[in-house]
Automatic annotation (TrEMBL):
<dbReference type="InterPro" id="IPR001607">
    <property type="entry name" value="Znf_UBP"/>
</dbReference>
<protein>
    <submittedName>
        <fullName>UBP-type zinc finger domain-containing protein</fullName>
    </submittedName>
</protein>
<feature type="domain" description="UBP-type">
    <location>
        <begin position="1"/>
        <end position="101"/>
    </location>
</feature>
<dbReference type="Pfam" id="PF02148">
    <property type="entry name" value="zf-UBP"/>
</dbReference>
<dbReference type="InterPro" id="IPR013083">
    <property type="entry name" value="Znf_RING/FYVE/PHD"/>
</dbReference>
Length: 101
């Protein structure tokens, strides 16, 4: 059975809140890839990164959809429905993103 995301309505145009994973920058950690919350603009690291801050942001806020952000990947993911989602647009990067803190 094909899974469908019921959270397309929650996808917003957002302004990235930081130039890298917010928590990794604060804690001096490294990330692998970045994910952008399409509800509030929080930038967190992916599940392959030690901090897994994008998923932690979801668990804290219940904001359902993230965008593959660094490098810009053009896809979204819904944490609630566990499915790739089509995004209405791709968020431009705010500026040069440091590779690591």
């Amino acid at each position: 059975m094909l899974k469908v995301c019921g959270h397309q309505i929650d996808i917003k145009a957002v302004f990235p809140g930081s130039l890298g994973c917010k928590e990794c920058l604060q804690q001096g950690m490294q990330w692998v890839h970045l994910r952008l919350c399409r509800t509030c603009g929080h930038v967190g690291c992916c599940d392959s990164s030690p901090g897994r801050h994008a998923a932690a942001h979801f668990r804290t806020t219940a904001h359902p959809v993230i965008e593959g952000y660094d490098p810009p990947e053009g896809w979204g993911w819904c944490f609630v429905d566990e499915v790739v989602v089509d995004l209405p647009d791709q968020t431009p990067q705010r500026g040069p993103i440091p590779r690591y803190a």
